[in-house]
Amino acid sequence: MADYPRIDVTVDVVALAAVDDAPHVLVVRRGNPPFEGRWALPGGYLEVDEDFAPGAVRELEEETGIALRAEQLRQIGAYGAPDRDPRGRTISVAHVFRLDEPTEPRGGSDADDARWLPVDEVLDDLAFDHAVIVQDALALLADT
């Protein structure tokens, strides 16, 4: 059997809500490298025995305290640029959901903080390729 390089799979969640008629996105402040201290989407590594949406639900609850059901998420797509994660080759499957109004989050797991921030103010400060994922989520929802 041939040896293949390791490729990790992660899940990310774009949670959106309107605050004073402005779109806000739920972000977490990373507590660990890479991008320690920077805002990022809630997410993390997929467990060996879980599907994408349940993994995204688990990561969202671990990092923000917000609980959903897998069927509430809509898959945006897969993100696999070879250099998207400095830790190594990582493919992320991103999901989106929208709330009528934001639910109060709490930072947990490897997230130092969790909060709702205006989309237009946070896009330039997001870790990884999360700004692209947020923009794709907004475009997907605008088409529906």
For the biggest sheet, the summary is:
7 strands, mixed
**What order do the helices and strands follow?**
EEEEHEEEHH
Give the number of helices. Answer: 3
- Overall mean confidence score, pLDDT: 94
Low-confidence stretches: none
CATH second-level architecture:
Alpha-Beta Complex
Rg? 15 Å
Examine the coordinates and then state which fold CATH places here, giving the name of the CATH topology. Answer: Nucleoside Triphosphate Pyrophosphohydrolase
Instruction: Please state roughly what percent of the residues sit in beta strands, choosing from under 5%, 5-15%, 15-25%, 25-35%, 35-45% or over 45%.
Output: 25-35%
Structural class: alpha+beta
The counted number of beta strands is 7
| Alpha-carbon distance between the two ends | 46 Å
Name the shape in a single word. globular
CATH-wise, what's the superfamily?
Answer: Nucleoside Triphosphate Pyrophosphohydrolase
When the domains are counted, the total is: 1
**Fraction of residues in helices?**
10-25%
Question: Can you identify the CATH class?
Answer: Alpha Beta
